[in-house]
Amino acid sequence: MTEQIRLPDLPTDKDFDGEVFAPLYTTTVIVSGGTASHGRASGRARSADGVLDLNLRMPAELGGDGQGTNPEQLFAAGFAACFHGALSLVARQAALDAAAIFVEATVAFGRDPGDGGYLLCVDLVVRWPGIDPEIAAPLLRKADSLCPYARMAWQGTPTTITLAS
Q: Which residue, among 76, 126, 84, 83, has the nearest Cα to 105 in the 3D structure?
């Protein structure tokens, strides 16, 4: 028998009114370039705690060998998992069964028509059999306002880039 996983007990109301960002968890992942000296084409991604340790490869559609995961897959997994967590949290608070919820994230990598740079587009599809769409709609909106990936997609994310010495 496996041990039951403890569900998070995070508040869903906006109970923080501080003036600066208050991190609850921080992680670091280091990507190296591998044989091609290109993190996306032949890199390795490893988390500071060693739990994540995988090879990165370009997808075949972008000229790679497709023999490893790629940043878009990792982003899709993170987005889908985070949104699923937010939605299941608000569902449980509404005394609804979250066990049947599935979140599918499709991430498209392409050219930005505005400036010719690269851009990601995300499409989330929530499958929740048996839920009335009128009951689900406000819960989806609340999950969208709670999920940091969704907030990042709508609002952007503060980012710093520093060259270490």
A: 76
